Amino acid sequence: MNPFISEIELMYFQAEKEEKETDHLALNGILKELVNLKDIRLHGNQEFALNLLDWELLLSGLDTSSNLSKFSIINCELNLLQFKNLKQFVLHKNSVEELNISHCNLTEEIILQFENILRQHTNLKVLRLSDDQINDRGIQALCFCLSEKFSAPLKVLDISMNMLSYKGACYLASALVRCKEKPKELNVSCCGFIDSSAAVFSECLEYNSSLRSINISSNDFSIAETTLLTAIKANKNLVKIDMQFSGISDVVSAEITKILVRNSSRSKSETNSLSETFNLDEPEYLVWEYNPHNPDHIPGLYSDEFV
């Protein structure tokens, strides 16, 4: 096994016909050799699921992967004990920056376990929970942790394909108003937003200061498009919105696009201005430094006899 492998994808676990239910996938022996592993992706199916011992072997094999930064579990059946083992592993792996557990049909008890991860993990930047059957109580727990100042420094949150009720939309909107620095990117595509839930989500964007990109595609914002436009006009930070199949008219969509272009140009201008003022990569003689004997002195430009 090549120890320099940094990425591995395990797909479609399936037992051989002669195997018994007590047989296990001993992945620990293989994974222990991959000391430089940075990204692991597990894709399950309906026919064969990893049991508790399989998970324990898998996670023990990843103990040597000190650089592991991405962990993806797609379409795998997880019970509470398996997830608790995974939670403990993630909490002890501060190198993990991205956690993707999608299409796993998670129970409410498992969703609530993410409270510990969000509160205790200090390096988690990307969390993807797409199509995981998140209910109102689950989204409330996630949003409560999201709004806490010292929770994980999330930059990307993906809760797409989870049907959120009006109450769930209110929880999310409330968190986005309170959150001043996170997340930067939010995916709520295909979350069942319609009428009142779409309106309350739209309103929160007027007061949110963290988001730079949102995906609201495959929701119904036709009734709430005016509210959305008003909020976007007041928002100076958003630079990208995916509005495909959202019921927003061409006129409103064009107006929103103009505003996003304005925000993007302003953001680039401010960035360039800041980099010109504080660019420490410039040669020494181009970096202005105050000299009490000569305020116009530029280090390295003049010899000492002229100072």
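Above is the first protein from milestone M3; the second protein from the same milestone is given next.
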Amino acid sequence: MKSEYERPAIRLLKRAGWEPGRSVGIADDLGALEMAGYEVFPRAVDFLREYSGLFLAISRPGEQDAIRFAVRRACRQIDLDWVEVHSELAGVRLIPVGLVQVDQMTVLFGADGHFYGGYVYTFGKLGTDLLEFIENTVQGKGILPVP
């Protein structure tokens, strides 16, 4: 069995500049979320401190993609009302934390620690934790149904 540090998602995170215990300033992220009308929950603060600002380049055969943890950019791309409707659908409070699929899909982080995403008419789960979300993206799995 592979250790956590041998997983492909960990290698991508490290290539993007992440290391265990990483901690960055997130005042701009928190300000953007507050200005857009989001209530930030403690789990999101912890996530942002460790992962905000990372850009994970992803290559699949014939396709380039990336996961970008950029709160301000995500807030500009998605409407608060849309997030609130989909928070109800998921049964958990969500906030925008980034973008994926060439910045076309907004990545949402849930108070449950799961990752969700969507476009205007599409919504679903991207992974039950960060590593699953990254690995699903690398494998091109896209949006999974919300139970």
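Note on the second protein: The first strand starts at residue 55 and ends at 60.
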